Amino acid sequence: QVQLVQSGAEVKKPGSSVKVSCKASGGTFSTFPISWVRQAPGQGLEWMGGIIPIFGPANYAQKFQGRVTITADESTSTAYMELNTLRSEDTAVYYCARAAAAGTNPFDYWGQGTLVIVSS
Amino acid sequence: ETVMTQSPATLSVSPGERATLSCRADQSVSNNLAWYQQKPGQPPRLLIYGASTRATGIPARFSGSGSGTEFTLTISSLQSEDFAVYYCQQYNNWPPWTFGQGTKVEIK
User: Fold this and answer.
1) How does DSSP assign A29-89, residue by residue?
2) Which residues are registered as beta bridge partners of A47?
3) What is the pLDDT of residues B59-76, one digit of tens each?
4) Cα–Cα distances in Å, from A93 out to A9, B12, B47?
5) Cis peptide leading into B8, omega within 30 of 0?
6) From the candidates B97, B103, B104, which should be mutated to test the interface with A, based on the most A CB atoms within 10 A?
7) Do residue A45 and residue B99 have CB atoms under 8 angstroms apart?
8) For B54-57, which contacts have Cβ atoms below 8 Å and span 24 or more sequence positions?
9) pLDDT of residue B15
10) Residues 49..88 of A with a Cβ closer than 8 Å to B: which?
């Protein structure tokens, strides 16, 4: 059974950075796309970017270009999302999600979510 | 990017009744449309993909239909555990993958 386990909640100051991890187990890591999706309090789901570990460079939503970096470490089956220059509007739950396969596929497995609070 | 619009925002339904949720795309997404269920404090769960195929372990009371730009999720007889927020997502025109704003199904 595939499991995605994310790192714990973070409290950050405005202007700082946060790096969230997502460790996969129970399946092949390298060939499945991993995306990061965030959800602000009481709001909907927003795709931030994604990566296929074996292929390398990530795709990013235009809104987050230049501020987010998504990477993957095949040796530890872990994906990372780093968001820079945090502002209060970045307070949200951040999810990693795995697509069913590379290409045109939905997200079939999700991490439990990581709450990031940005506050002075 | 493909904009997904869900209606209604909130649906009040009595247990045992049918619920019909709508999702519209502003351009064709073929049948590359998924529905997710989300309960408070939990991540989304995949219900339907390919517009009409139930994901593993999803009860038969959940059904999806549509193609192109108009889609429907139907819950034939609402159970207590079905009260949640439902999101549609297109995965045809990517990146980015885009979601609707959600429909909350609440107890009437």
Assistant:
1) -TTS-EEEEEE-TT---EEEEEE-TTT-PPEE-GGGTTTEEEEEETTTTEEEEEE-S--GG
2) A37
3) 999 999 999 999 999 999
4) 9, 27, 21
5) yes
6) B97
7) yes
8) B55/A108
9) 95
10) 49-50, 59-62
